[in-house]
Design goal:
Elements: H1 2-33, E1 48-57, E2 64-73, H2 77-90, E3 106-112, E4 115-120, H3 123-126, H4 132-149, E5 155-160, E6 163-164
Length: about 190
């Protein structure tokens, strides 16, 4: 009878250890899960870096100028696209003009068949100064930055709050994906 109790006690101890281990694993997943860039979306682990050319408006807002910056991102294309646009939102380091509001946010970046779908928050449009020249530079700041730093991207489509918008702010047609325009770069 004593051997039977020892085995039962031993089994209970093992089950208790397994339950505690499982609970710890679930807790760790819930705690660290939101901070890990890996997962089913095809994103990779954080830590990849790229020397990128970000395209901001020149001080007179007449053309785009490149600013080189080291971008840290995950291994996937989605992570890289997101990091590039987030760097645009942070604004230039040099004496260039920002093209997106600092309150704008990247909601998502989806890559399909050589097209980057860049989903921006409503602040990207509502806090934009407007005007055809400024809109042109903003849109191509995004398109050129994403496409010229990711050669596999042939075009970029800008979405606002997950929806396809007809225009950016009344001037730039956003109904279709746009190819990069190097003629705006000086």
């Amino acid at each position: 009878m004593k051997k039977r109790m020892d085995r039962t006690g031993h089994k209970r101890a093992i089950l208790l250890l397994l339950a505690v281990g499982a609970a710890a694993a679930v807790g760790a997943f819930l705690f660290f899960g939101g901070r890990h860039a890996g997962g089913p979306s095809g994103t990779g682990a954080p830590g990849a870096t790229t020397l990128a050319r970000l395209y901001f408006a020149d001080p007179l807002e007449a053309c785009l100028r490149a600013e080189e910056r080291r971008i840290v991102h995950g291994a996937g294309q989605t992570d890289k696209g997101r990091a590039l646009v987030e760097a645009l939102i942070q604004g230039p380091i040099r004496d260039l003009a920002r093209t997106l509001s600092p309150n704008a946010a990247v909601r998502d970046v989806v890559i399909r068949k050589g097209v980057a779908y860049v989903d921006l928050s409503a602040a990207a449009v509502s806090e934009h100064t407007g005007g055809s020249e400024a809109e042109l530079l903003t849109v191509y700041s995004i398109v050129n930055t994403v496409c010229l730093n990711m050669p596999e991207m042939k075009a970029a489509k800008i979405l606002v709050e997950g929806e396809s918008a007809a225009t950016f702010k009344g001037h730039m047609d956003l109904r279709f994906a746009l190819k990069p325009d190097r003629t705006l770069i000086r």
